[in-house]
């Protein structure tokens, strides 16, 4: 898929979905949201694309959120079960990474929160400035941010709309890693290749259990986790054999 406002390309095991409206700080209007949805569907359907990397064109912004100069175009999308910005009410079946440079604001921050991991270049700034204009969070921000950084810290950012620099965002747990300015996409692709190299069935089963088990009582969460055991046991046996033979002893996270 390729279009002016959004590009989709395969880079190794990753599908890279890029917002390409730098003149609008990669803000999303209605047609752009449709293209994001199209890119998401392409990623889900592509069995060889093991990780989605979401990013924006240029050094100035990952995404400044919904394009408020075209806000009327979102009216038909407010009740879309996939989400106003294209896919924000869906849970992807495979890992996702946000590669953030510059401003990551409003709905753009909600897009980043939708991702499993968030890699930012130094100088990134994140927040919900739409608070001052009375624009609500409708792309998952009120639900995902508390799950990522805790309710108290999330309410600080949601209620005040204040902007946080990359150092504070990292300390809050809002970011997974900070790299040199301009290096977020390269680092995100390295993460993607490392994740793609792991045995997929067990990694995806663990990811699914973590996501679906959040908020369940402990006994129900443990039961959910246990369901995957028999399904991936053959992979575990094969992996244990490789470990016993000396393979894969480079340390935790050595591939990343």
Report on this model:
The chain is of the alpha/beta class and 256 residues long. The protein has two domains: 191 residues, 2-enoyl-CoA Hydratase, Chain A, domain 1 (Alpha-Beta Complex), CATH 3.90.226.10; 46 residues, Helix Hairpins (Orthogonal Bundle). The chain is built from eight helices and ten strands. The strands form two sheets. The protein has a six-stranded mixed sheet with strand order 1-2-3-5-7-10, sandwiched between helices. Strands 4-6-8-9 form a four-stranded mixed sheet. The longest helix has 27 residues.
Name some characteristics of this structure:
256 residues, alpha/beta, 2-enoyl-CoA Hydratase, Chain A, domain 1, Helix Hairpins, six-stranded mixed β-sheet, four-stranded mixed β-sheet, 8 helices, 10 strands, 41% helix, 17% strand
């Amino acid at each position: 898929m390729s279009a002016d406002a959004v590009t989709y390309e395969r880079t190794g095991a990753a599908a890279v979905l890029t917002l390409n409206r730098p003149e609008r700080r990669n803000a999303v209007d209605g047609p752009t949201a449709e293209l994001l949805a199209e890119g998401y569907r392409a990623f889900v359907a592509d069995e060889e694309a093991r990780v989605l990397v979401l990013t924006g064109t240029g050094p100035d912004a990952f995404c400044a959120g919904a394009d408020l100069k075209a806000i009327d175009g979102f009216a038909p999308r407010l009740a879309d079960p996939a989400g106003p910005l294209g896919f924000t009410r869906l849970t992807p079946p495979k890992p996702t990474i946000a590669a953030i440079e510059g401003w990551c604001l409003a709905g753009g921050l909600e897009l980043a929160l939708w991702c499993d991991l968030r890699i930012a270049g130094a100088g990134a700034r994140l927040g919900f400035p739409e608070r001052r204009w009375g624009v609500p969070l409708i792309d998952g921000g009120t639900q995902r941010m508390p799950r990522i950084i805790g309710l108290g810290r999330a309410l600080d950012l949601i209620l005040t709309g204040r902007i946080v620099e990359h150092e504070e965002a990292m300390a809050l747990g809002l970011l997974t890693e900070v790299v040199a300015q301009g290096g977020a996409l390269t680092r995100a692709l390295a993460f993607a290749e490392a994740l793609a190299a792991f045995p997929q069935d067990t990694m995806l089963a663990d990811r699914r259990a973590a996501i679906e088990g959040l908020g369940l009582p402990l006994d129900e969460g443990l039961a959910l986790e246990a369901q995957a055991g028999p399904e991936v046991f053959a992979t575990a046996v094969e992996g244990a054999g490789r470990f016993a033979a000396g393979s894969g002893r480079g340390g935790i996270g050595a591939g990343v």
